[in-house]
Write a structure and sequence with these properties.
This protein has 218 residues and is mainly alpha-helical. It has helices spanning 13-22, 36-51, 57-63, 65-69, 73-81, 94-97, 101-112, 137-152, 157-165, 182-203, and strands spanning 29-33, 89-93, 132-133, 174-175. It has two domains: 6-123 and 181-210, 3-Layer(aba) Sandwich (Rossmann fold); 132-175, no CATH class.
């Protein structure tokens, strides 16, 4: 049994304390991290898709500072380590652990103390949330907002029905091939460099797969 959402990482200290108190059965926590610059860029396209945003990535960065802050993993993880032991965490990275799927299955099985052969044969091989935007963007954003409102009212059967009918596919899909502006990548790399160092010291490991060495911006 498990539960998943990226936003658990960003819980406030009092909420983490409440989770530990209310759910003493929490024994193991898996954290999947991604290069914070690429995570932010991916999140930008996600918001473009579900909110029908039509702004540049730079404008998104400048106008949504709290989403930029989400890349400061060490700051948020520190809150969890105040309440949970380091041994209860398995730290994975998108760049490393989603490439070598077989190795990651064994790593997960060892951490969870389960049989690695019990995973479905295709587990970890399909790509979720690929970068794309729907052809009918306004209609898609409206459908997302309707779904949010239904969830707020604890009404879930329309969502289940929509999934069964494949409604998401009705809006079409166009792949996005948008490379980040190199100048902006440098700026963001500089922004996150010290935070990554903090994370490395905290976890006693290096995140060389991210290549966030501080670069001079001209």
């Amino acid at each position: 049994m498990g539960e998943i959402t990226p936003h658990y990482l960003y819980c406030k200290p009092e909420r983490i304390a409440a989770l530990k108190s209310e759910l003493p059965s929490i024994k193991r926590i898996i954290l999947l991290l991604r290069n914070p610059v690429d995570r932010l860029h991916s999140h930008y396209w996600f918001r473009c898709r579900i909110d029908n945003l039509d702004i540049s990535f730079r404008s998104f960065v400048e106008n949504h500072p709290h989403r930029v802050e989400w890349g400061r993993y060490g700051t948020y993880l520190d809150r969890w380590l105040d309440r949970f032991d380091r041994s209860q965490f398995l730290i994975l990275t998108t760049e490393k652990d989603l490439v070598d799927v077989e190795s990651t299955r064994r790593k997960l099985a060892t951490f969870l103390q389960v049989d690695p052969d019990a995973f479905p044969p295709d587990a970890g091989k399909s790509k979720e949330n690929s970068r794309h935007i729907p052809y009918f963007r306004a209609a898609y954003a409206w459908a997302v907002e309707v779904n949010r409102e239904l969830k707020r009212r604890d009404i879930y059967w329309p969502r289940t029905l929509a999934r069964t009918l494949g409604v998401k596919n009705w809006f079409g899909k166009q792949e996005v091939n948008d490379e980040m502006d190199p100048q902006l990548r440098k700026e963001l790399s500089n922004l996150y460099a010290e935070e990554v160092k903090k994370l490395e010291e905290m976890l006693d490991r290096e995140f060389t797969e991210w290549d966030l060495s501080t670069t001079e911006v001209t």
